[in-house]
Amino acid sequence: MAVSIPEDELEETFIRAGGPGGQNVNKVSSAVQLRFDAAASPSLPEDVKQRLLRLAGRKATGDGVIVITANRFRDQARNREDARARLAEMVAKACVRPLVRRPTRPTLGAKQRRLAGKAVRAGIKAGRGRVTSDE
Length: 135
What we know:
Layout: E1 10-15, E2 31-37, H1 46-56, E3 65-70, H2 76-95, H3 108-126
Antiparallel strand pairs: 1-2, 2-3
Helix pairs in contact: 1-2
């Protein structure tokens, strides 16, 4: 399933990032905080929204807004790309419908092999008992 999120549903704010950057770190807002309102998004089907919010975990607020903070890189453009890529990856994972597990029963041959193995093992263990003299 291919899902595209329009640009107007994303909200980006630029904040100052810690870490390396020298004097630049105190002057430039290079970190990106990407906000996506998944709960109110018209571009996502309802089941994908539920899986996306479950996948987001702590990145999702109580209102269903996903907040991704990217400050891996020193320049704003790369952090912006990183945040968008992380959101795209999360949405792609949410689009995959989980497989329903159908319970199966073991075959007759499998049951017989299991019981035969148990009998062999029981014989080995029985042979380890105390030795009694029958004389």
